[in-house]
Each structure stands twice: as structure tokens, then as C-alpha cells.
Amino acid sequence: MKRLLAGLAMLLHTALALAVSPYIAGERRPAAPVAEQMAPLAQRLQAEGFTVVGRHLPPRLAGHGSLIVTDPALLLAIGTAGGAAIAGAGIRVGVRADGSVSYMNPDYWYRAYLQQGFGAAQPAVRDAAQRLARALGAGAPFGGDVPEADLPEYRYMFGMERIDSGKNVLQRHASFDDALRAVQANLGKGLGQTAKVYEVVLPERQLAVFGVALNDAEQGEGWWAGTIGADHEAALPYEIFIVGGEVRAFYARYRIALAWPALGMGQFMRIMQAPEAIHATMQRLAGNP
Questions:
Q1: Which of 93, 193, 212, 286 is the most exposed place for a label (fewest CB within 10 A)?
Q2: Strand ranges for the chain from DSSP E
Q3: Whole-model pTM?
């Protein structure tokens, strides 16, 4: 019996050891307005080789924000992988007015977004993780645990969408350039009460991604992220991306679940209208201007 219990304990330990969390806590800073917190963090990140491409200050999530950076080696890996991997071009750093700092765990997000290409990209992922830790600190991981083997084909539960869901495709344009112009124009108009947070374009790969602020007072991120956990600042902003002539956005039952994997079904039901609301907004951004 003791051997059986010891064996079960070892199996449990192994399973936990192979689980990955979506976020890592950084070094806490003195309290200050979010915009003021971002300046020294940006300097630290730039000193470690990252490029700042955007700042997100959600108007309906007071005291919460995110800083978005890119990394040249990761962009190269993303371009090589192609497809939906472009959604991972922006590395999100969560910032809070109380001084809390967090950031997306590269090991978690790139296992999901790079899928079979993760193995080849792993040296770049590890290097980026080490430099993020030097710039921001390396505290405890948080946000839930997902077995690393599940991340390439992750879904919240049976019947829900994965990374390759057909619902992701919003619009097909005649060319990559047409798709790019359409999204740029529609974000410029602020359709659906949106705003551009960042833009990353890999023209030689015909890939692009935009961070999108969802500012609708009733159905935007202030409502749904505020309902399920605004402490996951590094989950935002949401993305719309382009692959060739296709404009895509992850369906929210995948994207939100990936960012909040510990979310209970009861919590998910409280924002049950969010996936279709986000999808409708992204469709407006994807259409012909």
C-alpha cells in the first residue's frame, strides 16, 4: 500500500512539474499611476534588447494596464512558423497602480502559439524568458496550470474551440496588402469603439498582428476582463491578425480560456455573451473600409 501511495505521489509530482502557468510575477514597485510605472519598465526592457511597440491603458479598468514589446529572435521564429503564430508577436507586461508587475510566461504562450514549431524556437523562447526575468524580476508563476503537452491543442473543455477553429477567419481579401489596409483603416476609424494598441507587420512573410483595445462600455474588456479577473493585465490587449489575405482573430472561448485557464465554468457563464460580442467587433475591423 505504501508503495502504491508513493507511486501515485510521484506521478502527481511529475504531472505538476510538467504543468505551465500563463503569467510570472515581477518585482513589485512603489505605487504610482500606471502611465508613470511604464516609463522605467520600458527602459529596463529596452536595455535587455526588447522593442516597445505599445502601451495599453484600458479606460474602464482603472489602475490596470499593459506594456507590449517585441523581440527580434522571437519574431524570426514566429515568421518561420507562420500562420496563427503571429498572434504571439507582442510580449505583454502587466502593470498595476499598486506597483504590481507581471508578464506573460513565454514557455506557456509560445507552446500554444508555435505548436509544432516550438521545439525549434525553444532556445529563443528561453533566452527571452531570461531577459524578461532580468528586466522585471522572476517571482512566482500564477494564473492556473496547464500540462505543457496540452498547450499546442489547448481547449477549455470538450466541444470548445482550439487554436485552429474555423471561427477564427473573419474576412478573406484579395491580397495581404488589401487585408492590411482594411484593418489599419478600420482601426483608424475606431469601429466598434476600438483603438489600436500596437501593430507588428512581417511583410516578407505576409503576416501582421494588431493589439486592439475593446472600449465598448457594455461589452468591452472593461466588462468581461473586470468580471473574471483584471489582475491578469498581461492577458490584454486582444489581437486581430492577418495571414496572407485572411483576417483572423481567435474565437474568445479559446483566447479567454487560454489567458484565464483556472476560470471556473460559473465564472465563464457570467461573460457568456463576450465571445460573440468580441467576434462581431473583430468582423467589423476585418471588413472592407
A1: 193
A2: 19-20, 23-25, 51-56, 64-70, 91-96, 101-104, 141-142, 146-147, 169-172, 194-202, 207-214, 238-243, 246-248
A3: 0.93
